Amino acid sequence: MTPTPLGGPPRQPTIKEVAALAGVSPMTVSRTLAGGKNVRQDVQDRVFEAVASLGYHRNENARSIRPGQTSGLVGVAITNLGNPYYGNFALGVEEVASHYGRRIVLGNTGEELSRERQLIADFIGRQVEGLIVVPSGGDSGHLQREMLRDTPLVLASRTVAGVEADAVVLDDIGGAYRGTSALLDAGHTRVAYLGNVTSVFTGQRRYEGYERALAERGIPVEPSLVRRGQQDVATASAAMRSLLDLEHPPTAVFSANNRNTIGALQEIGERIRTRSQVPLPSIVSFDDFELADMMPVPVTVIDHDPRELGREAARLLFARLLDSAEPAPARSVEMPTHLRVARP
Q1: C-alpha angle with apex 14: 32 to 47, nearest 5 degrees?
Q2: Class of CATH domain 70-164+308-335
Q3: Counting runs of H as helices and runs of E as strands, what totals does the chain give?
Q4: Average per-residue pLDDT for the chain
Q5: Spatial distance between the Cα atoms of 284 and 23, rounded to a whole number of angstroms
Q6: CA 286, 231, 47 angle in degrees (round to 5)?
């Protein structure tokens, strides 16, 4: 951070100072912060290191906000704008924000840390009053209080190690445990796992619930039945194909999120159309999804309300914004899930 003048407010670093520290031109800094088009990745990395070192933020609203005014904006960063789950989550945030006369600014990170870092910087540059972030994981430097200029932050669905912030998460472990247990109680012993990358907070917790249910019944995890790393429908479909092509395929599948479930069902649908002789597995899905009750095989859902998750995240944020008392310790709220058993 640029040194503070004696007796005055901190002076914000300039784009020229960022450029000098990174060893690039001010134009390259601007291009990097605007998306990095035609800027090499190693150059972008140097620019972002300089930005972090100096605590630089673009002030997008400087000309439109008069002294004493606030922007009236809440920045919301989600990981997958194409997933209806996050659309409902954003609607919940918006519902509470509008009650307080605020609007939301929505951005998509695509589970990429560099995009998340850039998006947060843009939000701070627009002088948002608060931030609600579904974090992608990894390095947390851009989410530290000093980098956010003390802008209140709420983490939603996931937490990040080393970030002291209010958070609202789901009962990921308990939900996955109950879902896997339901399959075991139905007599299945070869239960496969479909999930996202191990570094994702929810993926790790849901795998833990799956593992715990198997361990309680003395069933070891079989590595050939575990597929982790699928972030979209296409890769989930390919993972399901590899499971069904095993010499001894699973008789049931626990899916850790709705994108993995839809990918699995796409492959099952293909098997039905080609009249494959492979027995079709039972499925438990963490997260509801479109037309879940109309699938070619029954799908039991570990259900919860993403809109209520968004509302709760917004309530935590406005509790911070409106509390004039001394800062309280970070709060963490865990929201319940319930098992919606598929009709045979």
Answers
A1: 30
A2: alpha beta
A3: 10, 12
A4: 86
A5: 53
A6: 130
Do 1-56 and 70-164+308-335 agree at the fold level? no
pLDDT digits (tens, 9 = 90+) for 289-344: 777 767 777 889 999 999 999 999 999 999 988 876 667 889 999 999 999 987 65
Q: How far apart are CA 179 and CA 167, in angstroms?
A: 24
Each residue's pLDDT tens digit, 135-183: 988 788 899 888 888 899 999 999 998 899 999 999 999 999 999 999 9
Residue pointed to by tokens 């958070």:
167
First to last CA, the chain: 62
Q: What is the pTM of this model?
A: 0.76
Q: Which homologous superfamily does the CATH classification assign to the domain defined by 1-56? A: lambda repressor-like DNA-binding domains (1.10.260.40)
Single out the residue of 117, 152, 169, 156 nearest to residue 138, CA to CA.
117
Distance CA 176, CA 159 (A): 18
Domain ranges of the chain: 1-56, 70-164+308-335, 172-303
Right CATH for 172-303 from 3.40.50.2300, 3.40.47.10, 1.10.10.410, 3.40.50.620: 3.40.50.2300
Residue 308 Cα distances to 36, 108, 144, 301, 334, angstroms: 35, 20, 26, 17, 12
| Sign, Cα dihedral of 256, 257, 263, 266 | positive
DSSP 8-state class, residue 206: H
Phi and psi at 45, nearest 5°, equal: -60, -40
3-class secondary structure per residue, 228-241: ECCCCHHHHHHHHH
